Amino acid sequence: MLDTTHTGAPLVQMRDIRKQFGGVHAVQGVSVDLFPGEVVGVLGHNGAGKSCLMRMLSGAMSLTSGDIVVNGTKVELKTPQDARKYGIETIYQTLALADHLDAAANLFLGRELKTRFGNLDETRMHSEARDALAQLNPNFKNLKDPVASLSGGQRQVIAIARAIYFQAKVLIMDEPTAALGPSETAMVADLTVKLKQEGIGIFLISHDLHDVFDLCDRVMVMNKGCNVGTFKIEDVNKDDILSLIIKGTLPDDWEPRGQNT
Amino acid sequence: MPDTTKKQKLRFLPTGSALHRLSALLTLLLLIGVFAFTSPAFLSVNNGLTVLLQTSVIGLLAIGMTMVIITGGIDLSVGSVLALSGVIAGLLIKAGLPVAPAMVMGVVTGGVCGLMNGLIITKMRITPFVATLGMMMIARGIALQLTGAAPISRLGEAFGWLGNGALFRLVEMQDNGFPRVIFPGIPYPAILLVIMAILGAYLLQRRQIGRHIFSVGSNEEAARLSGVNVDRTNIWAYTASGALAGLAGMVLMSRLVTVQPNEGVMYELDAIAASVIGGASLMGGVGSISGSMIGAFIIGVLRNGLNMAGTSAFIQQIIIGIVVIGAVYIDQIRNRK
């Protein structure tokens, strides 16, 4: 099942990760790895534990047991700051934006640029934000409006800009296109390809199998908190994935499809 | 092209919180106008200074309260903390400490109470309403227990300096032996209020801590995921509120030259009203020091003007209650748009 085509060292290895909430086992002994320039799709129905697993990697949730290894060293990700220190950035499904602040304030939230005297450097933050957002969406103009008044697409662009502005090495995208229209979805797809070429490793959580097959190199399917299979994307088709998501097993007659063609 | 010009034109109109502040300012001017018309003594220099003096205590409390309200919390303990800080300062002076360090200790007492609020809210995960309600009773209880509910007086002339002194005060001795006040001077409490308000606005608008206070009130989970230390930010806000309550206590007790352990009851409500009138949202994420200062002065002018017009204290309460509800209602309409 595990492919050995990758020669480089993995960016991230999650080994035997477990998470328990009281008596509920949300994640049970999941292992997954991510190589530079690779997109790994994380699939599963709601409550399968995929968001939970990713939140542990982004430092937003503590893990009950298991190891996270980044660039060959075992790390403890207790807070989102810890994860960011290792170049792990996350685009959350909820976007995690402060509605009353403007785009620049959100982009630099928690990592504000300061002047020599320790004051907020609004001018620099605004110009940097303008550049960063223009790269993603040239029409982004209303930088000084509170983000509550922006459209879903614009809000998503801010969340994405925030993740990539700080030179992420590992990017976790939790349903990045859920709030987007077709053109913006295409933009996110282009961006994903571009980031991949830059050698960034991406975990993509998505319900959209179309996206997954377009963008991912490998997929990992979770069912009831367990990893029920990690495959190269060529080896599976949509029916196999659906079977894994719903039943937790492959169709009975399955064999790696990539080898047949 | 017409579209862009229209948009540019709209930019000049004040929006959101600026509009609210403007309407609050207009209300304040309107009030001053009405009271000046009804009572000739209202618009005198002396009465103006009295309003400044009376408002400075509420103003100081409102600065801290605004920070707490922006985080999405509330601080019900400031009135009691004000009293406890005064009691501690008074007892230290009685114990032989000079006035200045005793007053510093009073402010520190307020800060410690605020710190306790912050720790209880963040570490014990108790809602701000309940935590500060508890602190309100605890601080008042300690103040009353330490003094046996009796005022501490004869604290010396130096103790009254902060609350009763004034800058640029010009007094001339007349031939008949009576002093004549040429210019009553700018009261120290008013100067202190201006300094603290500017400091507060600077911290909120120009410093990282202010940005974090807004982010925590706007969306606490987003702030946490963005790497903001939410607990530290909350603790900071409550500590600032407590310390400012301590400072307000020093001003108030100094003005009375007596420490009253039962002083400052319900002051928290005036401070909350000032913040809310000034545009702060109890849902968090919105508010400004300048707005709260206008709010504090609306309450101060209203109280003073109604007194001058001979309105009873009970009617005053009713009117202020209506003003608070009205201000929040205007805010609701604004947000619905």
From TrEMBL, chain A:
Every ABC transporter domain range: 12-249
Alphabetical UniProt keywords: ATP-binding, Nucleotide-binding, Repeat, Sugar transport, Transport
Native source organism of the sequence: Pontivivens marinum
Example of a GO MF term: ATP binding
UniProt keyword annotation of Phosphoprotein present: no
Lineage: superkingdom: Bacteria
Name assigned to this protein: D-xylose transport system ATP-binding protein
Automatic annotation (TrEMBL), chain B:
Keyword Membrane: yes
Short name of one Pfam family: BPD_transp_2
Bilayer disposition of the protein: Multi-pass membrane protein
Cellular-component GO terms for this entry: plasma membrane
GO function term, MF aspect, one: transmembrane transporter activity
Keywords assigned by UniProt, alphabetized: Cell membrane, Membrane, Transmembrane, Transmembrane helix
Compartmental location: Cell membrane
Transmembrane feature ranges: 21-43, 49-69, 99-122, 129-152, 186-204, 277-301, 313-330
Protein name: Ribose transport system permease protein
Annotated organism of origin: Pontivivens marinum
